[in-house]
Amino acid sequence: MIVGRQGLTPEKVVAAAADLADEIGFDRVTVSGLARRLGVRDASLYSHVRNLDDLRSRITLLAATELAELLGQAVAGRAGRDALGAFGAAYRGYALRHPGRYASTNRQLDADRFAAAPGPQRILEITSAMFRSYGLTDPDLTDAVRLVRSTFHGFTGLEAAGGFGHPRDLGASWDRAIDALDHLLRSWPPPRR
């Protein structure tokens, strides 16, 4: 995608960077590499992004906004196992289709940028609402979200890397994992004394 200096906007720069992240990996995106991709000099990009950290933060915000949209659509009007399954399918699908963007969502944003960003905030709202349908409140809510996120992240990471060598259908294993998580969430253990 060669756009030339006149065609650049911050949105185009970030979209191109996100596409590049999906192709080569989020941690391998550089301003120089993006400039080459866009057919411009590095300096041309600095009127649209401050530096590499700013570029990567913007990829994170774009990815969070995209993921929030998918998750919101997936869980709308659903609760319990149905919502968890739809949420998981949207999460897994995004992670597998957009590996670089997805990797960026695991990056910690600075507190001010996070607080002002609608994408990450929307993901928190959707996730909290879904887990509250299981009757969970903090600190159990936070613990349950961490467990489910770790399960989804681990499964999709292993799947993307080809780490499941057994011939059992991955979709069947995924569905059983959702069933097991749903069972656990419905019978969440009381706090330890």
From TrEMBL:
Q: Which residues form the HTH tetR-type domain?
A: 7-67
> What protein name does the entry list?
TetR-like C-terminal domain-containing protein
- PANTHER family associated with the record: HTH-TYPE TRANSCRIPTIONAL REGULATOR RUTR (PTHR30055), TRANSCRIPTIONAL REGULATORY PROTEIN (PTHR30055:SF239)
Which parts of this chain does the entry mark as a DNA-binding region?
30-49
Phylogenetic lineage:
Bacteria, Bacillati, Actinomycetota, Actinomycetes, Cryptosporangiales
Give me the segments passing through the membrane. Answer: none
Q: Which Pfam families does its entry note?
A: TetR_C_33, TetR_N
Which SUPFAM superfamilies does the annotation name?
Answer: Homeodomain-like, Tetracyclin repressor-like, C-terminal domain
Q: Which UniProt keywords apply?
A: DNA-binding, Transcription, Transcription regulation
Q: Which superkingdom, per the lineage?
A: Bacteria
- The source organism is Cryptosporangium minutisporangium
